[in-house]
TrEMBL record:
GO terms for biological process: lipid biosynthetic process. The keyword Cell membrane does not apply. It comes from Salibacter halophilus. Residues 66-339 form the Fatty acid desaturase domain. This is Acyl-CoA desaturase. Keywords: Membrane, Transmembrane, Transmembrane helix. One of its GO terms (cellular component) is membrane.
Length: 367
């Protein structure tokens, strides 16, 4: 794996001042940086949103085709809610100051069809460390999409703004079927499994076991216990995955692949970036819909992506409050703080960016 250094001499006063201001907020209000009662209640709700419909189907309470489709639909939102609001914080170590709590809730990633170790490497190590750096940030690495101007252009990409929703919708389905295996092999070659205290053999065995019980729980048991043709069960399962995949992709992509944010590529191993890590996060990340209480609640505060990237160890329940501190500190140091007033505006910017990257017009604009 390439090594990359950020420029620690670039405005070091900013990150010192920012950390001091944010820490002072928690000290002045005498509150923990981790989950509170509201977060625990949300956790119970999101977990129930996923498991209750499944239980209703497996116990024969809901047996009709359209009834089960409704249950799978609710489960799709439950999957997204767990992924965005619970598992995400836990795997960052932000949910609790107790490691076993974070580990337990972080394991919920496997109920989305993903392998939690791979998720932590892709998201915590690669995406958070090297946001929007081509060749290092796995979140912008996609063979059927062009997410960065540093990536090669293909004729098919000119249509990516139109076919993107389809590929977004099958994201978690791909995690479940193939991506985890592909990633595990690559992470072994790049010595990334060692950081998680895992050998390839151990990780592979865990992966196979977790996929097996997931198949048994969400596919085999419904086919056996629900009095419907197997293909109708599979329609519901795939529909659940597509709802979750689309929601997850749109939330994360609208925070990084938009018209305002910057993109980078390390020229060679050992390259030193222009900015320090904190300023790099502000240049590659954007917020949206800061006034939407319901959206922010459901998506785990990830409309405050800037705060999440700067302070991933803080539970998202606090992002709205500290966003005011982050924005003010950034303005004091004349550092950009990108945000869209609504989610619709962020979506428009994202799809405009996809179109510009696909047609090559973005390359001409920055040339």
């Amino acid at each position: 794996m390439k090594s990359l250094r950020f420029n620690r001499k670039d405005n070091p006063e900013f990150i010192k001042e920012l950390r001091k201001n944010v820490n002072q907020y928690f000290k002045d209000n005498n509150i923990s940086k981790h989950a509170n009662l509201a977060m625990v209640i949300k956790t119970l709700f999101m977990v129930s949103l996923y498991f209750t419909p499944l239980v209703l189907m497996l116990t024969g309470v809901v047996t009709s085709f359209w009834g089960t489709i409704a249950m799978w639909t609710i489960m799709g939102f439950g999957m997204a809610g767990i992924g965005l609001s619970v598992m995400h914080d836990a795997n960052h170590g932000a949910y609790s100051n107790k490691k076993w709590v974070n580990k337990l809730l972080g394991f919920l990633a496997n109920f989305l069809g993903a392998y939690h170790i791979n998720w932590k490497i892709q998201h915590n190590v690669l995406h958070h460390s090297f946001t929007n750096v081509d060749g290092m940030d796995d979140d912008i690495a996609n063979p059927v999409m062009r997410f960065s101007p540093q990536q090669k252009k293909k004729w098919i990409f000119r249509f990516q703004a139109f076919y993107a929703p389809f590929f977004y919708s099958i994201m978690t389905l791909y995690w479940f079927l193939g991506k985890d295996f592909v990633q595990l092999i690559r992470y072994k070659k790049e010595d990334l499994l060692v950081r998680e205290g895992m050998t390839f053999k151990k990780a592979l065995s865990h992966l196979i076991i977790n996929k097996s019980w997931y198949i048994a729980l969400t596919i085999a048991l419904p086919i056996i216990l629900i009095d419907l043709p197997w293909w109708q069960i599979m329609i519901g399962f795939v529909f659940m995955q597509m709802i979750c995949g689309l929601l997850l992709a749109l939330i994360f992509q609208t925070a990084h692949v938009i018209e305002e944010t910057s993109f980078f590529e390390p020229a060679q191993s050992g390259t030193s970036m222009e900015n320090n890590w904190a300023i790099h996060q502000l240049k590659t990340t954007a917020n949206f819909a800061h006034k939407s209480v319901l959206l922010s609640w459901f998506i785990g505060g990830l409309n405050y992506q800037i705060e999440h990237h700067l302070f991933p160890n803080i539970c998202h329940i606090h992002y709205k409050r500290i966003s005011e501190i982050v924005k003010k500190t950034a303005e004091d140091f004349n550092i950009p703080y990108y945000q869209h007033t609504t989610f619709a505006h962020a979506l428009k910017s994202h799809f405009s960016m996809l179109n510009s990257l696909g047609t090559g017009s973005y390359d001409k604009k920055v040339a």
